[in-house]
């Protein structure tokens, strides 16, 4: 069936079977490979996107369910002038990524958190990111990056 | 001094693509006319294959071909890269490791058949129509049962399930036993180093391609070492010479060791693409990863420490059963032996050591190197045993360690287990960690915890590891079937920019940022003028890849040597142009000057002259400015450190929470502190995961119980604390030009014993006489230990 949606501000469409997941549709049909697939049990969060403004693991939705929806993926997160968004920039500044595979999902989840809760505590950040697994960073610098993106003071726990 | 030189926390340039969805991982590659393979994997651990009926599957929509083992009769098995010699001087038992199961199935997840179809869904649907005629056999999972005389055999053609019985150093055994007889105190500890799954967030992927017009095969794969895959797969499995085989590993989403090895799926896709004359792609699901990625750890150990009346360590002996799984993965035999036994001296002066390791075949997924590989297993048993000794002797665990440390003036220090530590200062990292962890304030924090009904405990661990792997002539004597040098080609372009082609390959370590920092420092140009090329055998020199914290120590040293050659040649050119003696030429801040004069030439003037050699010493040197170096290290490097963990234990539930974690490491010189600290954070995160959460579990029939993130407890953001890291204690490596030691594995090595020691401290301080709990320290295990 033909599926259409607004992705990162552009109307895009492609073919999907009834069983095609949104994550697969974005990657294979629309060529948006920034959304990653890290598991098959909706546990890792690498495929996190925003659907109609809400944070969603795109492997938990069929593409057909997103027909007509407004979707934001990592490819659409930078500022319109091409510079990194506040969250993206904070991840680079605070070394909140290593291999980069969980990163798109982390950025989408962190962006969503700050929209809901502009000044989260460290505990709130950790709680919000529970659905996104990172194997590289021990989350230390991810938490720092989100604190920094929210304009809060970043704890100096490293001998930097 | 250029900005972004050695010592600068330069932000990573690779982040720009990773943060915007522009990373190019293997699964992002799709080729024209590409087919998809779905592997039918065994759901039983041990069985005889009587027949495989693929006829129905072959008729299903979109199916191009179904492969079974008979299609691979002319193809070799997956090779093992290390042959261990046992304590009797005999080579290890080495079974064939087929691409697809041949006649027998030996572990859950083993590939029985492969369906190639136009779409993945079609391949998956068709695989369900394959009929297997199997006779199930009893499985052997427990290592001690596997080596009993009456055990089921994993491989009928081997004499037993014992791969090897290794003694190290065998000649020391009698003296070690004698020291134990004379000991004033002996501490004995039996423990399990739990089986883990590395779980890089990017699952493995392989895309095979074949060009008939020039008979060239290409494999795109998720690998830490594309050249190693090319060599192993080309020479030993498929019989393709290197010049007809290209292996590309683009952006790699984490590895932690499990992407070192050559896997069946890589050989399958390369082979099938040539057979079918179309690209063939496989993308692992996470469930497949759990039952096909090489697992890690899985040692069962008894360790004994002998002390004299003054609490000096006099001898150490350990007996370990190491699980190999059903087949030997690429470097599996080396992990419990040369990466484990050689580290049993730890940071201590113990004069006599004997290590026995029995490597055992079982009906489980093959086990191989995982972050630290052998060194975490050595550190865990040693640091747990020392802690137990301190409790038995009622002495301060930090002071017992300090008393037995190798002293700063004793380096280089030859251990009784065949390695020579070049440098170190264990007293310094211990003092630094005690200070940063505010151990002095512990009692007040414990009282505060107690007021909230929680038990607080503090645990210390030291570690030593051997990195910068490794001197080729030494590892050759020890059974390695490969050299362990690294390579770099430094290409200076006419206008002065530099491209470095390296055999090292980043899978998250940030080489594209740190490697240019080194060259920027040497030449005095901006790091932005240097670009790194890696991960493609077609455009990089033969290299051994990235693992064992070796990239900067070995690959960086190769780059350093090649850059030295570049500088030497460019000085010759500068001397000619400035009509000066070569010995008077200095290069600083990207300027060539003649000592004692005001003559100078910019870096770019000289590089241009190399390619436009009008005024050039053509009678002495060739045009161009490109040099290659292969660096083979003279020794391992020996990073070390002290880790301190502070936990709270809930008496009612047994739940452990890590409250504080402090890591004081000695990595020698540090190129990019930000990246080094990130490596420690990640390693500690994995170590805490091992100690508290992760466990790869099989039932007695060989069913894998933890085959998804629903069952295998990965550390989440809420499980980990902020981590205090320090790398100010620096004793630079003496034998590589950068003085660097490696930092990738330290966190995963030093943290599990610190955490377990902390939990036991919490329990024992609060009236629970518990000598040991095996990892992971789940609430149920801790509660049970308190309520036994």
Description:
The complex is a heterodimer of chains A (160) and B (788). With 160 residues, chain A is an alpha+beta fold. Chain A has two domains: 75 residues, Ubiquitin-like (UB roll); 64 residues, [2Fe-2S]-binding domain (DNA polymerase, domain 1), CATH 1.10.150. Chain A has five helices and five strands. In chain A, strands 2-1-5-3-4 form a five-stranded mixed β-sheet, sandwiched between helices. In chain A, strand 3 and strand 4 form a beta hairpin. The longest helix of chain A has 14 residues. Chain B folds into three domains: 153 residues, Aldehyde oxidase/xanthine dehydrogenase, molybdopterin binding domain (Aldehyde Oxidoreductase, domain 4, 2-Layer Sandwich), CATH 3.30.365; 187 residues, Aldehyde oxidase/xanthine dehydrogenase, a/b hammerhead (Aldehyde Oxidoreductase, domain 3, Alpha-Beta Complex); 327 residues, Aldehyde oxidase/xanthine dehydrogenase, molybdopterin binding domain (Aldehyde Oxidoreductase, domain 4). Helices cover 27% and strands 23% of the residues of chain B. Chain B has a seven-stranded mixed β-sheet with strand order 3-5-1-13-10-11-12, with helices on both faces. Chain B has a five-stranded mixed β-sheet with strand order 7-17-16-15-8, with helices on both faces. The longest helix of chain B has 27 residues. The chains are: A alpha+beta (160), B alpha+beta (788). Chains A and B meet through helix 2, helix 3, helix 4 and helix 5 of A and helix 1, helix 17 and strand 30 of B.
Short description:
The complex is a heterodimer of chains A (160) and B (788). Chain A is α+β, with helices and mostly antiparallel strands.
List the topology elements.
The complex is a heterodimer of chains A (160) and B (788).
Chain A: E1 2-7, E2 10-15, H1 22-29, E3 48-51, E4 54-57, E5 70-72, H2 86-93, H3 103-116, H4 122-128, H5 140-149
Helix pairs in contact in A: 2-5
Chain B: H1 15-18, E1 35-41, E2 47-53, H2 55-58, E3 63-67, E4 104-105, E5 111-117, H3 120-127, E6 131-136, H4 143-146, E7 162-168, H5 173-182, E8 185-193, E9 196-197, E10 205-211, E11 216-221, H6 226-238, E12 245-248, H7 264-276, E13 280-283, H8 286-292, E14 295-296, E15 299-307, E16 313-325, E17 353-361, H9 375-393, H10 397-404, E18 413-414, E19 420-421, H11 426-436, H12 442-451, E20 454-464, H13 472-477, E21 486-492, E22 498-502, H14 511-523, E23 530-533, H15 551-577, E24 585-588, E25 591-594, E26 600-602, H16 603-611, E27 626-631, E28 640-650, E29 656-666, H17 673-693, E30 723-726, H18 746-765, H19 779-786
Parallel strand pairs in B: 1-13, 11-12, 16-17, 22-23, 29-30
Antiparallel strand pairs in B: 1-5, 2-4, 2-6, 3-5, 7-17, 8-15, 9-14, 10-11, 10-13, 15-16, 18-19, 20-28, 21-22, 21-27, 24-25, 25-26, 28-29
């Amino acid at each position: 069936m033909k599926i259409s949606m607004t992705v990162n501000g552009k109307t895009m469409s492609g073919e999907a079977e009834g069983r095609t997941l949104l994550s697969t549709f974005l990657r294979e049909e629309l060529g948006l490979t920034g959304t990653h697939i890290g598991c098959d049990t909706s546990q890792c969060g690498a495929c996190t996107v925003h659907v109609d403004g809400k944070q969603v693991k795109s492997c938990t939705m069929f593409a057909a369910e997103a027909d007509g929806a407004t979707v934001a993926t990592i490819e659409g997160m930078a500022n319109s002038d091409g510079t990194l968004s506040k969250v993206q920039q904070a991840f680079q500044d605070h070394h909140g990524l290593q291999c980069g595979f969980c990163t798109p999902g982390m950025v989408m989840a962190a962006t969503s958190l700050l929209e809901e809760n502009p000044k989260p505590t460290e505990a709130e950040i950790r709680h919000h990111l529970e659905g996104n697994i990172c194997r590289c960073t021990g989350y230390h610098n991810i938490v720092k990056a989100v604190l920094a993106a929210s304009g809060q003071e970043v704890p100096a726990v490293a001998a930097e | 001094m250029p900005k972004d030189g050695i010592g600068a926390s330069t932000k990573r340039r690779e982040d720009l693509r990773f943060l915007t969805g522009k990373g190019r991982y293997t699964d992002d590659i799709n080729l024209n006319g590409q087919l998809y393979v779905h592997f039918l994997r065994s759901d039983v651990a041990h069985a005889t294959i009587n027949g495989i009926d693929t006829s129905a599957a072959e008729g299903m929509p979109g199916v191009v071909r179904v492969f079974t083992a008979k299609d691979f009769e002319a193809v070799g098995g997956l090779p093992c890269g290390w042959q261990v010699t046992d304590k009797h001087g005999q080579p290890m038992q080495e079974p064939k490791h087929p691409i697809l199961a041949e006649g027998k199935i030996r572990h859950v997840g083993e590939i029985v058949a492969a369906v190639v179809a136009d779409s993945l869904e079609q391949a998956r649907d068709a695989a369900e129509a394959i009929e297997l005629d199997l006779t199930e056999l009893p499985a052997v999972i427990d290592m001690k049962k596997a080596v009993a005389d009456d055990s089921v055999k994993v491989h009928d053609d081997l004499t037993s399930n014992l791969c090897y019985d290794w003694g190290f150093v065998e000649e020391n055994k009698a003296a070690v036993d004698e020291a134990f007889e004379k000991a004033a105190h002996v501490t004995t500890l039996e423990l399990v180093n739990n089986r883990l799954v590395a779980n890089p967030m990017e699952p493995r992927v392989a895309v095979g391609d074949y060009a008939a017009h020039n008979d060239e095969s290409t494999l795109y794969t998720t690998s830490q070492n594309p050249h190693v895959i090319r060599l192993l797969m080309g020479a030993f499995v498929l019989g393709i010479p290197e010049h007809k085989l290209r292996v590309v590993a683009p952006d790699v989403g984490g590895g932690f060791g499990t992407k070192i090895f050559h896997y069946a799926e890589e050989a399958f896709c390369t082979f099938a693409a040539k057979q079918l004359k179309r690209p063939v792609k496989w993308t692992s699901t996470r469930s497949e990863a759990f039952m096909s990625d090489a697992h890690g750890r899985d040692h069962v150990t008894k360790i004994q420490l002998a002390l004299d009346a003054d609490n000096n360590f006099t001898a150490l002996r350990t007996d370990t059963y190491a699980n190999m799984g059903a087949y030997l993965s690429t470097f599996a035999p080396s992990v419990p032996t040369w990466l484990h036994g050689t580290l049993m001296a730890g940071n201590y002066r113990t004069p006599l050591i004997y290590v026995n390791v029995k490597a055992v075949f079982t009906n489980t997924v093959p086990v191989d190197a995982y972050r630290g590989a052998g060194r975490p297993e050595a550190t865990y048993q040693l640091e747990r045993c020392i802690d137990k000794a301190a409790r038995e002797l009622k002495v301060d665990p930090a002071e017992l360690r300090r008393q037995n440390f190798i002293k700063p003036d004793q380096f280089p220090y030859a251990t009784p287990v065949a390695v020579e530590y070049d440098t170190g200062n264990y007293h310094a990292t211990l003092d630094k960690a005690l200070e940063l962890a505010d151990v002095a304030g512990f009692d007040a924090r414990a009282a505060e915890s107690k007021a909230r009904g929680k038990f607080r405990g503090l645990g210390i661990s030291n570690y030593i590891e051997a990195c910068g792997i490794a001197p080729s002539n030494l590892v050759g004597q020890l059974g390695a079937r490969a050299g362990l040098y690294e390579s770099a080609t430094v290409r200076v372009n006419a206008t002065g920019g530099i491209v470095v082609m390296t055999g090292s390959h980043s899978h998250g370590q940030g080489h594209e940022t740190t490697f240019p920092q080194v060259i920027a420092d040497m030449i005095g140009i901006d790091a932005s003028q240097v670009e790194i090329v890696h991960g493609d055998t077609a455009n990089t020199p033969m290299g051994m890849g990235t693992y064992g914290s070796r990239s900067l120590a070995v690959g960086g040293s190769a780059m350093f040597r090649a850059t030295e050659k570049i500088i030497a040649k460019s000085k010759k050119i500068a001397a000619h142009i400035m009509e000066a003696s070569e010995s008077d030429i200095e290069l600083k801040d990207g300027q060539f000057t003649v000592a004692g004069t005001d003559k100078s030439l910019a870096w770019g003037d000289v590089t241009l002259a190399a390619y436009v050699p009008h005024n050039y010493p053509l009678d002495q040197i060739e045009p161009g400015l490109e040099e290659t170096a292969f660096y083979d290290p003279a020794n391992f490097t020996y990073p070390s450190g002290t880790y301190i963990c502070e936990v709270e234990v809930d008496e009612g539930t047994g739940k452990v929470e890590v409250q504080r974690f402090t890591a004081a490491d000695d990595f020698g010189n540090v190129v990019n502190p930000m990246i080094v600290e990130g490596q420690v954070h990640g390693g500690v995160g994995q170590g805490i995961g091992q100690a508290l959460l992760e466990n790869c579990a099989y039932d007695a029939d060989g069913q894998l119980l933890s085959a998804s993130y629903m069952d295998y407890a990965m550390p989440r953001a809420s499980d980990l604390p902020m981590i205090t890291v320090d790398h100010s204690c620096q004793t630079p490596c003496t034998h590589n030009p950068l003085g660097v030691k490696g930092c990738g594995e330290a966190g995963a090595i030093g943290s599990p014993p610190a955490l377990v020691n902390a939990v036991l401290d919490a329990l024992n301080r609060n009236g629970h006489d518990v000598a040991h709990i095996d990892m992971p320290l789940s609430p149920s295990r801790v509660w049970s230990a308190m309520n036994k």
